[in-house]
Design a protein that fits this description.
Two copies of one chain form a homodimer. By secondary structure, the first copy, chain A, is mainly alpha-helical. Chain A has helices at about 10-15, 20-25, 40-60, 65-75, 80-90, 100-105, 110-130, 130-145, 150-155, 155-165, 210-225; strands spanning about 175-180, 190-195, 200-205. The first copy, chain A, is built from eleven helices and three strands; from the N terminus they run ααααααααααβββα.
């Protein structure tokens, strides 16, 4: 008789089996579902992820200054990038969300996915120690880091989006603040970024308007690159 | 015949002996001295320090939210706090500085000391592995974390300073930008924070005006608490 481990497929995808599965369960629990949620683990995971990516970049790019390394790391650990990795791991399938979040598609929301991935990494560190976390982070990031075009990655997303649009003779994107929640310093801004001529838009949240705009720009640029891999675009 | 290790006393104070002393040497070299300076190591050290302090706070304060943990960590890893630890280690005595920095007292400057401490921690991680870095960080921070009053520590420095002054019927502090160097995003602001009635002031640098003001406020508050441990103050 085989025993089904919690999130067995996810643990296989991560290449790590938890000794204390309750830590994994907590890492996959959004605050909308239960008071034993993943935010404290996310704090720990954010720490170890940033440290490990810093070390990997230090070794991979011996010619880069601290400022360049820092910009490059921001590219790899930003919400958008983490959400892509979480999606590849199908992490959304294992999330425990409250009813509201479930109905509004929370298991596909980039912020929820990125936070849960960080929480899972934090849980692995606490469960299996540093080498376990290092092995998983290496497996998830090493190829991405080896293949990156550093110049592209170090440009901020708003600049890259602007350059992409200008190269196609399109107007600058439009940024709008959709919502502003909470009070400083825990404020959350939700902004949209729209390319009017192509009728494409993105939304993102951030702890500052600028951060949210960067996220939204990066996300729209990704959509645009998928939709129009070449130089030709179709105005709508 | 005894061989004098580089910075032998510092290595003893850290409780860590380097296998590759050139890493320690680099960690102690300011950019004003040589092109093989400590900024890349500082990037790595900042990462591991943040991760380790995150884990320690996670275990020490199981009741705290992610936001509280994050504010508490900011208190322990901010420039001012790191500069104090660096001073206790007499790290300034081992720094290689350029002539200009030497003349202007660079080996006592909080930003240089804090950066060098982070670089040393990064060098220990690279030289001796995770457990070595964890042991040193634990030794430097565990007692401070155990003894902290979290409520005080989580308040931002400007708020704490304002409260201290108001409790003594003094006016609000005055913040002035003294210098603004470099270009965005590598800008450095130097600000002063002055309590006019007590004729006491502090200076600090930061990558934003707000960050510099926070540093300066924290530094002035520390001076004020030393000078006036009780409620009574002497206007000058």
């Amino acid at each position: 008789m085989s025993v089904v481990l919690p999130a067995e497929r996810l643990q296989k995808a991560l290449g790590y089996i938890f000794s204390e599965p309750r830590l994994l369960k907590q890492a996959l629990t959004h605050r909308s579902h239960s008071s034993t949620h993943n935010e404290r683990l996310e704090f720990v995971g954010d720490g170890i992820l940033n440290a490990l990516v810093a070390r990997r970049l230090y070794h991979t790019f011996p010619q880069f200054s601290e400022g360049d390394l820092s910009r490059l790391r921001a590219h790899f650990v930003r919400q958008d990038s983490l959400a892509i990795i979480a999606t590849e791991l199908q992490l959304g399938d294992y999330l425990s969300l409250g009813e509201g979040e479930l109905k509004s598609g929370g298991h596909r929301r980039p912020s929820i996915l990125a936070d849960a991935l960080e929480a899972v990494l934090g849980a692995i560190w606490l469960d299996g120690g540093f080498e376990s976390a290092a092995t998983v982070v290496e497996q998830l990031f090493a190829a991405r880091i080896a293949e990156v075009n550093p110049e592209d990655a170090m440009k901020d997303a708003k600049t890259s989006l602007q350059e992409w649009l200008q190269a196609r003779k399109l107007s600058l994107p439009q940024y709008d603040v959709l919502r502003q929640m909470g009070e400083s310093p825990d404020q959350i801004f939700e902004v949209s970024c729209t390319c009017v001529e192509l009728k494409m838009a993105s939304k993102a949240e951030g702890t500052s308007r600028r951060a949210a705009e960067q996220e939204a720009a990066g996300s729209l640029l990704k959509q645009l690159r998928l939709q129009y891999p070449g130089k030709k675009v179709v105005k709508k």
